[in-house]
Amino acid sequence: xxxxxxxxxxxxxxxxxxxxxxxxxxxxxxxxxxxxxxxxxxxxxxxxxxxxxxxxxxxxxxxxxxxxxxxxxxxxxxxxxxxxxxxxxxxxxxxxxxxxxxxxxxxxxxxxxxxxxxxxxxxxxxxxxxxxxxxxxxxxxxxxxxxxxxxxxxxxxxxxxxxxxxxxxxxxxxxxxxxxxxxxxxxxxxxxxxx
Length: 195
Known about the structure:
There is one protein chain. Strand 14 (179-183) and strand 15 form a beta hairpin. The termini are far apart. The protein has a 5-stranded parallel beta sheet with strand order 1-4-7-10-13, with no helix packed on it. Strands 2-5-8-11 form a 4-stranded parallel beta sheet, with no helix packed on it. The chain is of the alpha/beta class and 195 residues long. The chain has 4 helices and 15 strands.
């Protein structure tokens, strides 16, 4: 490594140690995000200690780094660029999101929901928002929901638990638990308990 790279690497390690001690050790939600990211990605680091998991996720998954800085309300932190490039993604602070949040390439994503449950996975181009610019008309999304690319979820609707939403879907009506939906407008393709 060149001297500048060594300095940057040493600074990153020091910064990660400080971030870990300040935000990760006692935060079960952030720990769930880390574990979900590594498990879904199939990383062998998922079996290591939580500090090693955190370091790995921050260094190798810039989409996780984005989630981490959002969780700690530090998206404006001047050091975040050591871990991620500028990511055009907006998660509204008013959205309550349980642990296990995981994204693949969160580009062109806007999430403004009333609440989102555990283990929410999403891909690029997601729009979750209000209807008629009325923030009382926001979606509620359950646990273990996986959303494909370029999906739109709008209005005061409820999406149940264990739902998979296919790419390009437009969801404007309530969705029951345990199903796969797709289309414009989205409709149930299959119930999860069907063979």
